[in-house]
Amino acid sequence: MLKIFTGEDRIRAKNEIEKLLGSDYEIIDGADLEPESLPNIFHGNSLLTSERKILIRDLSENKPVFEKIPDYLNTNHQIILFETKLDKRSATYKTLKEKVEIKEFTAKKDPNQELVFGIYNTAKKDGKKAIENLEKIKTTQDPLMFFGLLVSQALKDYQRNQGTKEKKVLKELSNLDLKLKSTSFSPWLLIESFLLRLSSL
Question: In terms of Cα–Cα distance, which of 100, 82, 104 is closest to 92?
Fold first, then answer.
């Protein structure tokens, strides 16, 4: 059995790998392989069993070896190639697609992503509305990561305008950063206080 898994959602892919291979399998880094290694991997037996369970990671990045894979489809072992990225335009991919199951594990889009990224801009006009939106996403966000997002958005504003308001916002965020690192107050309360003040800065 040879299967190819691809995609950014490593958690779902890992669950599927363990469903097929169990928890005890060999892991091989595809970047380190040479073409001469393939006969042993795909056809060689181990001392303990005639059927091996093998996960090979990111083999497609090693093009000289990946191009040889169509020659090894008749393996008796259970082998999964896990590719973070897979070039669908390559001749090897097109050949394999006809003969091997290729399963994609695309990362699910966070439904709150637009809301998260919009809170800063909302707060520039309406602090209370920004707090309402913040309440909707708090449970799925880390406050310090969210603070980092606010800083990056403020820096972008400053790069565009470099006005008095933009300077004040950066100064406020600098003070907020110190408070987040040195106080026992809830980080979310400090962030909310900043969002409420932002429209009047």
Answer: 100
In contact, 55 and 80? CB cutoff 8 Å: yes
Query: Measured between alpha carbons, how far is 199 from 201 in angstroms, rounded to an integer?
Result: 6
How far, in Å, CA of 122 to CA of 174, rounded?
A: 20
Rounded Cα distance, 54 and 25, in Å: 6
- For residue 104, the SS3 value is strand
Look up the pTM and report it. 0.56
CA angle at 7 for the pair 10 and 64, rounded to the nearest 5°: 110
User: What is the distance between the alpha carbons of residues 144 and 150, in angstroms, rounded to a whole number?
Assistant: 10
Query: What letters, b where the CB count within 10 A reaches 16 and e where it falls short, cover 172-196?
Result: bbeebeeeeeeeeeebeebbbbbbe
pLDDT tens, residue by residue, 31-74: 889 999 999 999 988 666 778 999 999 999 999 999 999 999 99
Question: In sequence order, which residues have a C-beta less than 8 Å from that of residue 22 and are 6 or more positions away?
Answer: 53
Query: What DSSP character marks residue 140?
Result: G
Nearest to 122, CA basis, from 152, 95, 153: 153
- At 100-141, the pLDDT tens digits run 999 999 877 777 888 999 999 999 999 999 999 999 999 888
Backbone angles phi, psi at 44, to 5 degrees: -75, 150
